[in-house]
Structure formats: C-alpha cells, structure tokens
Amino acid sequence: MEAGKNIRPTLGERFKRFWKEFAQQWQLQTMAIPGVVYMIIFSFIPIYGLVIAFKNYTVIDTIESAQWVGLENFKIIMEDRYFWQSVVNTLGISFLKLAFGFVLPIILAVMIYELRDSVFKRVIQTISYLPHFLSWIILGGMLITWFSSNGMINGFLNLLGFSANQNHMLDVGKYWWIAALSDVWKEAGWGTILYLAAMSKIDPTFYEAAKMDGATRLRQVWSITIPMIRNIISLNLILSVSGLFNSNLDQTLVLMNSQNQPKAEVINSYVYRIGLMQGDFSYATAVGLGISIISVILLTITNIITKRLNDNKSVL
User: Fold this and answer.
1) Any idea what the Cα angle at residue 173 is, between residues 86 and 187, rounded to 5°?
2) Displacement of CA 112 from its chain's centroid (Å)
3) How many Å apart are CA 156 and CA 215, to the nearest integer?
4) Which GO cellular component terms, listed alphabetically, does the Swiss-Prot or TrEMBL entry include (predicted)?
C-alpha cells in the first residue's frame, strides 16, 4: 500500500464516529429529533399511499385489498378536459406570480437596504411584512369587499373619471390578475428577508471603493449588491420555477365562486374537489403524483441552468 494513502474507514468506525459526534452535540441533536420524527410520520410514511394512484381505491377498501388498475387513472387524466383547464389556469396564474413576485422582493429589498434612517426603515419593513401574517380568510374577505360593485376599487376608478360599478370578482377575464397580484402583495415584503440578510453581510469597503471611483448609487447596486446576493436569487428562482404547478389552495378556495370558476380552478383545488369532496381518491392521487414528478423535473432543469450561469456552482 502506498505511503500516505488514505484508508477508507470501516462501517463500524463510522458508526462509532457518528455516536461520538452525537454525544458531543446531544443538546442540538435532541432539539432536532422532534422535527425528524415529524418528517418521518407525515412526509415519508405517507409515500406508501402513492400506490393508490395505480388502484381503484374506495373508503371500504384497504390499500392492499383495492383492485389494481395499473395506469388506468393516468389515462383518464389525459382525457379529462377539466383537469387540463385547471393546468392552464395554474400555469397562467403562476407565470404572472413569477413575473411580478420574483422581481418585486429584490427591488423592495434593495430600496429598504439603501435607506439610511433606521427608524423609517423599520417602519417600512413592518408594513411590508404585515400582509404575510394575515390569513387568506381575512385577506380574501378584504379583496371581495374591495372589488365589489360598491367597493374601494370602483370608488377609486370613479374618482379618476371612469364609470365603474361592476363586481370584478365575477369577471372571469380579471381573475388571473387579481389572484396573482394579491398573492404578490401578500408575500413581497416577507420575501425580502433572505435578500436583506444577504445584503447585511456585504463588506462596506466595496461601496467605499466604488464611491472613490465615481460610481453612482444605482451603479453600486447593479455592480456590487446584485452580484453579492446572486446565490439567494438563484435559490429563490429554482424554488419558484419548481412550484409553478402548485398554486395557493387557500387563496383559491376563498376567492373562487361559481362565476369565475372556469378561470379560478387550479390543480390543487381540482384535486381537493375530486379527492375529498367526490371521494375519487385514486384519481386525485394520480394527479398529485404526476404533478410532483413534473415539479421535480422542473427543479432539476432550473438547477442545471442556474448552475451554468453561476460558474458551475450549485446553490442546492
């Protein structure tokens, strides 16, 4: 054997090292145990239930006794026009959310970071965070009232000289925009937290050197701030793209009504309606499994693209 060559530790040696390190960090490890148990019970064990997608399962069956139908449920999905309409709605709303909701937190974070008055900065941060802590039950009620015939939106439009007295929540052509922009309004402030945390670690000497070179504030943001938070931007992009098929179920259930349903029904609400309300568990599971697989594929593709744009360094 060559001198100095590393010898791979045996399984027993690695097991002893694990328990030694565990004993040294037993306080932290003990705090992590409840989270691990929670993930095992609610995330890993339920994976076995995905077999329902390949069976004709009913409430009077067990998973083992249900009739095996193979890919029959997936064939039905391909022919279900209501499912495909929910896919179109999901992608339409998600792309609007991505277009506005991905860029706006970055811009808002930069604007907050550039503020010099600490009191005013805290006030702006608090105001921007507040909608995140309100449930969609509350926000949905507010939106329904605002967009009603006698609501705030029509009142504002009348002040501008427009004749407006319609209930915008009943207009199917406007629902995508209402759903997307209201979600952006709710989460934009909360989305600045990671960016502000990353900006706080930027060395101030970079900005001082840029000022000495005559760089304007806008140039400093573009050449220093944005490149320094590139990894966080890439990570959020990956997560946003991988979630294109996962629209907000709470928001949909609150804002959807019989008039706007053709444009409001998204995949999550469709699965909820078919699976829980109509009891077709096998079909709903098949839809959920298919969407999960597509989401993993989008996650992988986006990670590869961002890795190539980030000097072959992955943020995952």
Assistant:
1) 70
2) 23
3) 41
4) plasma membrane
DSSP states of 63-88 as a string?
TTTSEE-TTHHHHHHHH-HHHHHHHH
CA atoms of 266 and 256, how far apart (whole Å): 10
Tell me if residue 56 falls in helix, strand or coil: strand
Compute the distance between CA of residue 125 and CA of residue 128 in angstroms, rounded to an integer.
5
pLDDT digits (tens, 9 = 90+) for 19-48: 888 888 888 888 888 999 999 998 888 888
DSSP state, residue 55: E
DSSP code, position 210: H
Residue type, 226: I
The sign of the dihedral angle between the CA atoms of 260, 255, 101, 165 is positive
What is the H or E stretch that residue 269 is in? helix 267-272
Task: Give the β-pairing of 55-56 and 67-68.
Answer: antiparallel
The pTM score is: 0.82
Position 1 confidence tier, pLDDT thresholds 50, 70, 90: very low
Sequence letter at residue 212:
M
DSSP state at residue 5 = P
Structural domains in the chain plus CATH codes: 67-309 (1.10.3720.10)
pLDDT, tens digit, 9 for 90 and up, residues 246-282: 888 899 999 999 899 999 999 999 999 998 888 889 9
Q: How confident is the model at residue 303 (pLDDT cuts 50, 70, 90)?
A: confident
* CB half-sphere exposure, 239, CA atoms < 13 A: 11
Cα separation, 224 vs 207, whole angstroms: 8
